[in-house]
Every structure is written in structure tokens, then in C-alpha cells.
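pls design
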């Protein structure tokens, strides 16, 4: 079960990065060209939001069943950079990132002008993506190695 969730988490992460990059580029182009905020823009932002929430759900399950997750929180873990990354930094930073993504989507939905909608998505999704990229365990990521 653990191995299956670990592979699922890695696969969804790759899909999330692709979907997110495309949605972000789509919104940046819309912002720079002063386009109208269309249904396509809304769907792209929504797909990014759904992918991030799915990744969070799988990640939380993995965190509680993994030997590297919550069961590994101790003083010794905090001294080891990789252990600290898995037990504390990766989950905490990614929860914050997904909260920012959710806030950005919500604020864009409530915005009254197209420029505000594009700006909210670009700012909040960029912050979320930066945080996500900063805490991916690149050295052990199954899809890369």
C-alpha cells in the first residue's frame, strides 16, 4: 500500500507541475495581452486547483502511512536534512502552497475585472508553484532517478 501511494504521489506531482505550468503560462499571456478572461482560463485555473488538492489528499495519506512521515518526527530527525524534509518541511510548505493556490482561485472568482482575475491567478499560483518546487525531494524523486 505504501509503495503504491508513493508512486501515485510522484506521478500526480509530475502531472501537477505540467498542468500548473500550462495554466500559469496561459494566464500570464492573458494578463500581458489584456485578453478577456474566458471559460478556458477559468477551466485551466480549476484544473490546477483540482490537481493540487488531489496531490494534497494523496500526500496526507502517504504522510500518515509512511515510515518517513509523522511516525518519524523526533529530535534526531530534525538533525538530518533529508529526514527533516520528509517529516516536516515538505508537508508543511506544500500545505501552505496549496492554501495559497486555493486563495488565489477564490479571489480570482470574486474579482470584478479581467485584469484582476488574471493577476490573482498569476500571483497566487506563482507563489504556490515556487513553494512546491522548493520542497520537492529532487534527489530521491522516483520519476527522475
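designed seq:
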Amino acid at each position: 500500500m505504501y509503495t503504491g501511494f508513493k508512486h501515485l504521489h510522484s506521478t500526480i506531482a509530475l502531472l501537477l507541475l505540467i498542468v500548473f505550468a500550462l495554466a500559469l503560462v496561459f494566464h500570464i499571456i492573458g494578463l500581458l495581452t489584456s485578453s478577456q478572461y474566458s471559460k478556458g482560463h477559468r477551466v485551466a485555473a480549476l484544473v490546477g486547483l483540482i490537481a493540487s488538492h488531489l496531490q494534497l489528499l494523496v500526500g496526507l495519506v502517504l504522510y500518515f502511512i509512511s515510515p518517513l512521515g509523522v511516525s518519524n518526527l523526533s529530535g534526531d530527525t530534525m538533525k538530518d536534512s533529508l529526514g527533516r524534509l520528509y517529516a516536516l518541511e515538505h508537508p508543511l510548505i506544500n500545505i501552505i502552497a496549496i492554501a495559497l493556490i486555493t486563495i488565489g482561485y477564490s479571489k480570482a472568482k470574486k474579482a470584478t475585472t479581467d485584469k484582476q482575475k488574471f493577476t490573482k491567478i498569476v500571483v497566487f499560483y506563482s507563489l504556490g508553484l515556487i513553494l512546491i518546487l522548493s520542497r520537492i525531494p529532487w534527489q530521491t524523486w522516483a520519476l527522475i532517478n
